[in-house]
Write a structure and sequence with these properties.
Layout: H1 8-12, H2 17-20, E1 27-28, H3 40-51, H4 65-81, E2 90-93, H5 96-107, E3 113-118, H6 122-130, E4 134-139, E5 141-143, E6 146-148, E7 159-165, H7 177-189, E8 193-197, E9 223-228, E10 241-245, H8 248-257, H9 268-280, H10 282-304, E11 310-311, E12 319-323, H11 333-339, E13 342-343, E14 345-346, E15 357-361, H12 366-381
Parallel strand pairs: 1-13, 3-4, 3-7, 7-8, 8-9
Antiparallel strand pairs: 2-10, 5-6, 9-10, 11-12, 12-15, 14-15
Helix pairs in contact: 3-9, 4-9, 5-6, 5-8, 10-12
The structure holds pyridoxal-5'-phosphate.
Length: 382
């Protein structure tokens, strides 16, 4: 096992949001951070920078730092997903939320609609509000395979953009090729620009991720793919992400509104860590995926012990989307769990109508997970 030691006292001493912002008696299963440290190659890359005090204006590869990250991204997409992504149409950002805000400003106008599958990652809603656009919810439907987009929706004329999240946060669903084809048809029918947030693509537990932009055809002029190494390799604090435009024309349209210099420049820790993760982190990642698969199944087993509780095991990510509406005696399940000493995120954050759900982060040690699950099961069986 190459993961960091996961004893509770060591985790509680960390200064990340997950542990630092959680009271001592409470276990954190809320924010999307894992407890597993980072791959040895990432650690070595950071240690080298520190050892050599190499903090000057950095040079990597033959071009700019951004060009270097773009090349790394393109190699990664080819190796992992068989997708030939052109590095020339990449812009590098410090955060995907930043990229989403920039796209909203570039491709929509104030008051226009932005379609989002709900429940959704809360910042999608916040960013749409912050930029004075209007969220048009597309509720996911529960099918035998899990939560899926409704293939047969029609949109009001003012909807100019779709934000897709695949693999999906919070349900963990990975869309099939047929479902992605339906997204493609919808985008073409309504002439939408599509932001495809694929930050969780490396964290599939079952099935395979397909980058939306790889479908091509009518998507060629309309997809911005967002990704980073931050979730899979656990380096969100290092701040390095990628936006890939599916055509030079789309990138030009973007840059007509958003000056490139406003995107900032990636910092040297983020760039070197991302390269190390993508080039040398896959054995570590495979181990992590195995652990997450086991943890997800443990959560599903615990949920099955609570009368009335439901959970469709996700095919990706380290979040479980748990329906506790029928077993919390008219109380908000988040509150019941909070009192029991487990901090989750209330479903209402992802969809105002989903306060009977919680999102439960299971990316911790088996020992801590078991303590959280014991608390959860006894809280709802009382
Ligand atoms: C779907 C999704 N997009 C974006 C982010 C955040 O990315 P960043 O930290 O690069 O802004 C997260 C973090 O949890 C996420 O789940």
């Amino acid at each position: 096992m190459t993961f960091l030691r996961l004893e509770e006292d060591l985790l509680r001493a960390r200064r990340n949001a997950k542990w630092k912002l959680t009271d001592h008696q409470v276990y954190p299963a809320w924010i999307a951070e894992t407890d597993y440290g980072a791959p040895p190659a990432v650690q070595a890359a950071i240690e080298r920078l520190v050892r050599e005090m190499d903090y000057g204006y950095p040079v990597r590869g033959a071009g700019s730092m951004s060009a270097h990250v773009a090349d790394q991204f393109s190699r990664r997409m080819a190796k992992r997903f068989g997708w030939q992504a052109d590095p020339a149409t990449v812009e590098v950002v410090t955060s995907l939320d930043q990229a989403i805000a920039a796209c909203l400003l570039a491709f929509t106008r104030p008051g226009e609609g932005v379609a989002v599958h709900t429940p959704c990652y809360p910042p999608f809603r916040w960013l749409i509000e912050e930029t004075s656009r209007r969220l048009h919810p597309l509720p996911l439907v529960e099918t035998r395979d899990g939560f899926a987009p409704d293939g047969d929706v029609s949109l009001p004329a003012d909807v100019r953009m779709l934000i897709l999240c695949n693999p999906h946060n919070p349900t963990g669903r990975v869309l099939t090729r047929e479902e992605l084809d339906a997204v493609k048809t919808l985008a073409a029918r309504h002439d939408l620009v599509v932001i495809s947030d694929e930050i969780h693509a490396d964290l599939t537990l079952d099935g395979a991720h397909i980058p939306l932009a790889s479908l091509g055809g009518e998507l060629d002029e309309r997809v911005i793919t967002l990704t980073s190494a931050s979730k899979a390799f656990n380096i969100p604090g290092l701040r390095c992400g990628v936006m890939h435009f599916s055509s030079p024309g789309l990138q030009t349209r973007f840059l007509q509104t958003i000056a490139r210099s406003l995107l900032g420049q990636p910092n040297v820790f983020g760039v070197d860590a991302t390269e190390a993760a993508w080039e040398q982190g896959d054995d570590w990642l495979a181990e992590k995926q195995m652990l997450l698969r086991r943890n997800r199944d443990r959560v599903a087993e615990a949920v099955s012990l609570i009368p009335g509780a439901r959970m469709i095991p996700g095919e990706a990510t380290y979040m479980a989307w748990i329906d506790l509406a029928r077993c919390s005696k008219n109380r908000i399940p988040y509150d019941v769990l909070d009192e029991a000493g487990v901090r989750t995120m209330s479903g209402a954050m992802f969809d105002p109508a989903a306060d009977g759900y919680v999102r439960f982060n299971f990316a911790t040690s088996e020992a801590i997970l078991d303590r959280m699950l014991d608390r959860m099961v006894s809280a709802f069986r009382r």
